[in-house]
């Protein structure tokens, strides 16, 4: 399955065109390497997606051509979610 389609079907990203744009900007890593929208993904692959200052790392569990909203959580497992501090900002307090 194509990367951009997986991101849309799994609802990690709402629209396929947005998933394509994010991939084209180099904000998606597939198994540690920059991935293009047409890259083929398979179960067991790890994706690292940058959403602004937030970086989410997920492992693909299963592929499906279409999925209901409640079934999308079975498609991936969130491994890590971190926030990258902007270097121009002062200290941040939790």
From TrEMBL:
Keyword tRNA processing (UniProt): no
Gene Ontology annotations of biological process type: rescue of stalled ribosome
Record domain RNA-binding S4: where: 1-65
SMART domains reported in the protein's UniProt record: S4
Transmembrane portions of the chain: none
GO molecular function, one term: ribosomal large subunit binding
Highest taxon of source: Bacteria
Keywords: Protein biosynthesis, RNA-binding, rRNA-binding, tRNA-binding
Function: Key component of the ribosome quality control system (RQC), a ribosome-associated complex that mediates the extraction of incompletely synthesized nascent chains from stalled ribosomes and their subsequent degradation. RqcH recruits Ala-charged tRNA, and with RqcP directs the elongation of stalled nascent chains on 50S ribosomal subunits, leading to non-templated C-terminal alanine extensions (Ala tail). The Ala tail promotes nascent chain degradation. RqcP is associated with the translocation-like movement of the peptidyl-tRNA from the A-site into the P-site.
Subunit-level organization: Associates with stalled 50S ribosomal subunits. Binds to RqcH, 23S rRNA and the P-site tRNA. Does not require RqcH for association with 50S subunits.
Family: Belongs to the RqcP family.
Protein name: RQC P-site tRNA stabilizing factor
Species for this entry: Cohnella candidum
């Amino acid at each position: 399955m194509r990367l951009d389609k997986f991101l849309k079907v799994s609802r990690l990203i709402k629209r396929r065109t947005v998933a394509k744009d994010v991939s084209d900007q180099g904000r998606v890593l597939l198994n540690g390497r920059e991935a293009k929208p047409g890259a083929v993904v398979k179960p067991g692959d790890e994706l690292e997606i940058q959403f602004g200052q937030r970086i989410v790392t997920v492992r693909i569990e299963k592929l499906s051509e279409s999925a209901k909203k409640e079934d999308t959580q079975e498609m991936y497992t969130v491994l890590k979610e971190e926030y990258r501090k902007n270097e121009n900002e002062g200290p941040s307090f939790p």
